[in-house]
Design a protein that fits this description.
disordered N terminus, 6-stranded mixed beta sheet, globular, alpha/beta, 8-stranded parallel β-barrel, 29 strands, binds 4-O-methyl-beta-D-glucopyranuronic acid
Length: 848
């Protein structure tokens, strides 16, 4: 394609073009399946020469499947990066070699290794040493899994071009629990999954072909993740029936070589639903006996089974409240069944009432987890851990750290994060979440005086708890890119790296990930790292600034803007915007009292308007729109400005990515570009929706005159229509001017046209249309009689209505217009989709 374009260029330019070709030989096609484990050939000569030191032999001491996986991985990595096949020996060779083995086996020959007694389970040591004139590169650990992690660490060093000549690198994991959860249903659908169907289940069974599960376990192991729960916390009780256990055993078998322990989510009423008892009362002896027998049965089939995850008394799930019992009673009856097998139960802290009276200003969902669980501190068994979402609501774009982290002293806890971007753009918007997680993990809860950040509490370090760590809901799917957006994989990688070392910085993680995933070209690395690091603040700017929550449809889809949806219902995600002001008053003095759940130094920070950080202002306080922020702006002006800045920055993402053309392989370049183009358009939908909604609520105009004024926009309802009909859109703020047009003619063919009367020149035309999931309408754009562009509304956006989730921009670049030209859109509607159109915006063409 490039070549063709060049040939067509004028002779004078040909030389320039040739140069460009030489510089930018396009990298090989990359579907994204290998994620950060690509092991691309190292072409930097100096680095290659340095790696010539690598011995040609690998000797593995130990027979387990994990050790085999470690050895195979090493061979695979070296083959890929250096193009060499390591020779395999099973005993210590009398020549230079890489040695893989547990510490107690290697110590006999290398007594000096004794000094490295600081190793903990899963930790590893990479060490170069000499003996009898031979050079050895030792990868060792207390357990086999640690050796596997050591191999991955060595390969990562090489992929990053770091030296391996004189190694003495010892690492221990930050916490014992490093786990992924999945909300996969047995039928193969995934609750809050945005990347295709389940890799684990289909048609109410475990899938036949587990090769993807194997590759996924390998990805997990490569960043030190050691546990995985594979089914939805809204659990189908069938998952632990005797008939299903052999299927679980198959998954466990595939996980095993990668050191990943299998967990499943259970239904608390299982003793009744599948056990035939007339009760699931946790204090009933028969129920305890049932759980014990069930655990024994599972471990009979899967000896290294990890345990259970339990969502009880939450969002309609049955729990101990059915019998007036406590959460500790519920957790313990299961913990005791698991205990003889070293199993663990993760009891979810996400317990709240979703039928709260919204009229009562003292009600507060944010206070629920603490209120429900803090009084039970000390009553949970030692093999139970509370699994607590990072914020007190539900994975919003900005939340404070859950106060429960700071309140528990005698209970194991793990933090639950979310990789699947439920409220943060569903992998259609770029949103690198590591900086958000780090803000929470680094936040000082003052639980044992100053200097007790969340990460130390959840790791069990502060109060010396036996179990602790990190869980994230991943929800990867059958998409070739695992998460549906190439750049979203930085979140999966980043979670694993943080769980291993919570002190890594967001930038370090982004850089490591980018270089392994996209190669070493400095421009590529700099651009992608920059995009990743900017993405969460930008997403926050156009979806929910000042801590108001993600202003999305909270009832169902959790995607596009729908600020009204959180109000006047029992779900408790209230921002309480009215005609005077906005925000939840959570103060102790006048509000819900939630702030009082924090330790005094933290409570003091949030309670006072003067010290409460602006980014959480509306989470903690209800203020007037005219309240002046620390920046000197009023709240309302900040809301307007922030949305405009965010949308502008999202548009900038497209430009920044386009500069990488030819430097990133064509497939990933085009796929990421399409996502970023979409995001830029949808960021504008967010901007206009939220700004207009607040304008109507507050009646305070945008000081910069932007909101409600779109001089370059031609509303569809103002066009000349053939077959199209004007419709009111609900909610009104989902469409420009509250109205759109839909093609309802019998033959399903419609047209909308208008006369262009502006100046002559080159323009970009933005056609804003509604791409629902219930049809595949097609559009054609004409200027005069000339067909300029055509496209199909064939995305799978999560709605069957013309609303803000469906609203999509198609940009037609570089269109020549003269005054008097007729611009005409012809559409063919399809299925339930009526080829809805919102507007056309005509802007001066962007420089390419
Ligand atoms: O955020 C909510 C999600 C539910 C989810 C629940 C939970 C699996 O919208 O889909 O249920 O959280 O975490 O249990």
């Amino acid at each position: 394609m490039e070549i063709l374009n060049c040939r067509m260029l004028e002779v004078g330019l040909a030389l320039l073009c040739l140069n460009a070709l030489v510089l930018a030989a396009p990298p090989k096609r990359e579907p994204g399946y290998d994620a950060w484990l690509r092991y691309d050939a190292i072409d930097d000569q100096a680095t290659r020469r340095a790696y010539d030191q690598l011995p040609a032999v690998v000797a593995t001491l130990g027979e387990s499947n994990v050790m085999k996986a470690a050895e195979e991985e090493l061979r695979r990595g070296v083959r890929g990066m250096l193009g060499r096949s390591l020779r395999v020996e099973s005993r210590l060779p009398a020549e230079d070699a890489i040695l893989l083995g547990p510490l107690d086996a290697l110590r006999k020959t290398f007594p000096a290794l004794d000094r490295n007694a600081a190793l903990k389970a899963d930790g590893f040591l990479l060490k170069t040493t000499k003996r009898d004139g031979h050079a050895y590169l030792i990868v060792t650990a207390l357990n086999d899994r640690g050796v596997l992690y050591g191999v991955f660490a060595l390969l990562r060093r090489m992929a990053l071009g770091e030296p391996i000549a004189a190694l003495d690198q010892q690492e221990n994991p930050y916490a014992p629990v490093r786990m992924l959860d999945h909300w996969d249903n047995l039928d193969g659908t995934i609750e809050r999954g945005y990347a295709g169907p389940s890799i684990f289940f289909a048609n109410d069974n475990v899938v036949d072909n587990l090769s993807r599960v194997r590759d996924y376990a390998r990805l997990m192991a490569s960043v030190g993740l050691n546990a995985c729960s594979i089914n939805n916390v809204n659990a189908n009780p069938r998952v632990i029936t005797s008939a299903f256990l052999p299927q679980l055993a198959r998954v466990a078998e595939v996980f095993r070589p990668w050191g990943v322990r299998l967990f499943v989510s259970v239904d608390f009423s299982s003793p009744q639903k599948i056990g035939g008892l007339d009760t699931f009362d946790p204090l009933d002896r028969r129920v305890a006996e049932w759980w014990k027998k069930k655990a024994d049965e599972i471990y009979g089939v899967i000896p290294d089974f990890g345990g259970f995850v339990l969502k009880a008394d939450s969002e309609g799930r049955l729990g101990p409240s059915a019998y007036g019992r406590t959460h500790a009673d519920a957790a313990n009856v299961i913990a005791r069944a698991l205990k003889p097998h070293n199993g663990v139960i993760f009891y979810r802290g996400f317990v709240y009432d979703h039928h709260m009276d919204w009229r009562n200003l003292k009600n507060d969902r944010a206070a629920a987890a603490y209120n429900n669980l803090h009084p039970l501190d000390g009553q949970f068994d030692d093999n139970a851990a509370l699994q607590i979402k990072h914020g007190p609501i539900d994975f919003q774009v900005r939340e404070p750290a859950s106060p429960l982290f700071g309140g528990l002293e005698k209970t194991n806890q793990v933090i639950e994060l979310q990789i699947t971007q439920e409220y943060t753009g569903q992998q259609r918007h770029l949103c690198y979440l590591v900086p958000m997680w780090k803000e929470v993990l680094d936040f000082d809860m003052h639980a044992a005086g100053a200097g007790t950040p969340v990460k130390q509490l959840v790791a069990g370090r502060t109060f010396k708890r036996p179990i602790g760590g990190f869980v994230a809901v991943a929800n990867v799917g059958a998409s070739p890119t695992w998460l549906g957006h190439h750049l979203a994989m930085a979140n999966l990688y980043g979670f694993g790296r943080l769980a291993w070392d919570a002190d890594l910085t967001s930038r370090q993680i982004a850089e490591e990930w980018t270089r392994q995933t996209f190669g070493q070209d400095p421009q590529v690395v700099q651009t992608i790292v920059g995009l990743e690091l900017d993405s969460w603040p930008v997403y926050e700017k156009y979806t929910g600034p000042l801590g108001a929550g993600t202003l999305t449809d909270i009832i169902n889809i959790h995607y596009g803007p729908a600020p009204e949806s959180s109000e006047y219902n029992g779900w408790g995600q209230w921002h309480r915007a009215d005609d005077k002001g906005v925000g939840m008053d959570r103060t102790v003095a006048t509000g819900t009292g939630y702030i009082g759940q924090y330790r005094p130094p933290v409570a003091k920070l949030y309670e006072q308007l003067a010290t409460c950080p602006d980014e959480l202002l509306l989470f903690m306080h209800h203020v007037a729109y005219t309240h002046v922020l620390k920046s000197g702006k009023t709240v309302i002006q900040h809301i307007y400005d922030s949305h405009y800045e965010g949308a502008e920055a999202a548009a900038g993402f497209v430009k920044r990515w386009r500069a990488l053309k030819g430097r990133v392989d064509e497939a990933r370049y085009e796929e990421v570009l399409a996502r970023l183009e979409y995001q830029a358009g949808h960021a504008r939908v967010w901007r206009d929706s939220i700004c207009n909604w607040f304008l109507r609520k507050s009646s305070i105009a945008d000081a910069k005159g932007r909101v409600g004024h779109y001089p370059n926009r031609i509303e569809a309802e103002a066009m000349r229509l053939t077959g199209y009909q004007i419709t009111d859109i609900t909610p009104w703020e989902a469409a420009s001017g509250g109205k759109a047009i839909e093609c309802v003619s019998r033959d399903r063919q419609c047209a909308a046209s208008f006369r262009y009367d502006g100046r002559a020149g080159w323009f970009d035309l933005d056609v804003q249309y509604f791409d629902e999931s219930d049809g595949k309408s097609t559009f054609k754009l004409f200027v005069g009689e000339q067909l300029i562009d055509q496209w199909a509304a064939d995305d799978r956006l999560p709605t069957t209505k013309p609303d803000a989730h469906a609203s999509t921009r198609h940009r037609v670049r570089g269109v020549a217009l003269r005054p008097g030209d007729t611009v005409r859109l012809e559409a063919v509607a399809d299925g339930g989709e009526n080829a809805g159109l919102d507007y056309v915006e005509i802007n001066p063409a962007e420089m390419q």
